[in-house]
Amino acid sequence: MTTHVDDDGLTFSHFEAFRLINFTFIKACQTITAPDLSPRHRAEKLMRYHGDLLAAYGPGVPLSFGDFRQKLLGPIEGLLPPWLDRSGFDDLDFPVVDEEGCVTAIAFDLQWETAQLHRILNRLRRIGRMRFTEEQLQDEVDQDQMYEILKGRGDAQYVKDRTTLVECPAGTAEELNKRNLPLNAIGYYEAIPYHSIYHTWWFPCTVCKWPMKVSRRVTAGREYYRVACLYGRHADTGASFTFWPTTGDAPQLHPDSSDTPALHEAALALGTTGAVPEARPTEGYLALKRGVWRYTCVPGLYELRLHTVLRERLAAGQMDVEEAIMLWPMSDVYDHRIEVKGPDGSAYVFTVDVKDYSNVRVLAESLHRNEGDKGGADWLVVPDHRADQIPLLTVTCEKYGMKAVTMTEFAQLVCRSAGVVWE
To answer: Three-state SS for 365?
Structure first.
């Protein structure tokens, strides 16, 4: 990986430069559209981010404050310096924030996923200096701290608490307290995000139950609104609705998307509840911070689904599953540990980590930097809709004695090993 040297003589890789520029770009775009900032505070933040960006650029790459402001309205590609190598990333010609000022799903994932890889680089290279201090890696910090809070209550309670986060990403304070989450974990729930509010109402996703995003639309001169989950797969498979504007009353939603999974993937598919969500008042409700929701709740749904389906299938095959199929064992060293015996008495042990990354190159680089899975899992499993990631992940995993498969392929393999028919 090639390097660049800044004014202070600090050498850092192209990836690290991209990570810092990407972080600054996203935070600056959020600053432009944040509804609660005064003009003075908005200008102060933008000036600071402009300075941060120039520091990441290094000498010889001029960028006036006016050009900086203008480039924030375009894709991230337009803000990268000419010396930075783009070959390690997919298409960067996408908007960072949408018309409502909400960071788009692909931009959010890229920022979080590169932050994870940046943490690995910091640990391995022992970089003692960080360029940004106020908000850098905040979603990652939230995620790490949340895990530490849950791990402190023991293995059995960890599974219960982690399941609660997955199944209850939003609710009233009273509802959350009844779930017996640790008080520190409750602190990672906050007011319903502004981009999910219509008047005084919000709408839970029919797949994950987190607040869906509300977007204003105009067609043929007539105004309407779209409500959809920020996780694109949920929106594509039913968590997307429209409604006509109201004068303040709760609107009635109408479905505008549906998707039927392939027959062989149907058993593990995350379906919607089938019902149109009712509007809920914003007053008194809380929702998980976006980073914790995206990288705890969203993949956790797949982890729970895989665990549940395998238990059902193997139990139907007369197998004792209580000790054989473990979810988040040893406080989440990996996501699953599965031990089965074949018809001939052969024993098979599967240790599994489920990964749901939008950018497969970043995931592959993370595996490379960790020299495999950090918890020691032998299998890397991705949701079925990310099957196109398997070729690159297979090449990377082979270097570290791992195998990469989709969820359905993995579940079928486990059942075959146990002599259980997968229908």
So the answer is: helix
